[in-house]
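Comment thread on ticket #2218

A.B. wrote:
> Attaching the input chain for the structure job we discussed in standup.
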Amino acid sequence: MLTFVCREKCGFTTTDNVVKIYDDNNILFYFKENRNGKLYFNLPRGKYKTYNNLFKCKPRQYKKHYLPKPNKRKKLPNNFEIVYTKNPNKCSVDNKNHVIYFDHSFKRMPLPIKDYIKFHELGHYFYSGEGNRSEICCDIFAANCMLKCGYNPSQIKWSQNGTLSNEVKTSRIRKKEINKRVKNSFL
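C.D. wrote:
> Ran it. Output below, let me know if you need it in another format.
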C-alpha cells in the first residue's frame, strides 16, 4: 500500500478501473469507478493510502455555487472547538462559544462526511432562522468550502447522502438541490 501526503489541494489521474483512497485511519476517503479510461480527481490536504497507480496533475477546477446574501453577518472564527457528545440533532453549532457538537456516532465516520457537516454548521454563522431555506444555504456553503479544499463533487454528494434521511421530505429537498448543483460543477 502506498502512503502519501498532500500538503495542499492536489490533482491526480489514473487509468485504474476502481480508485480507493483511505485516510490515515484506514477509513475510506474516496471511491470512484473509472468508466472513461482515465479518471481525474482532487484530494485535499492530508495523509492518504492507496493501492492505485496515481499520477499527479493540476487540480480540477470547479465553479463556486451561488449563495444568496447572508441573513446573518457573523465572521467565521479563526479557531473553533469540535466536541463529540450525545447529540439528538446529530450535529449543532454554538455560534457564541465557537463550538461544534458532533454526536458520538460520527467519530468513525469518513472524513468527507465530518467535513461536510462541519462546513454546514459553520454556514449557520451566515444563514439561520429561515427553516429549510437556511439549511439549503448551509448545504451550498458546505459544498463550496469542500470544493475549495480539494474535495470532488462525488464526495459532496456521498457526504450529504450519508447524513440526510430519505424519510424526511425536507432532507429529500436538500439532497435534490445539492445533487443538481454538484452535478454541474465543472468549469
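A.B. wrote:
> Thanks. Noting for the ticket: The first strand starts at residue 2 and ends at 6.
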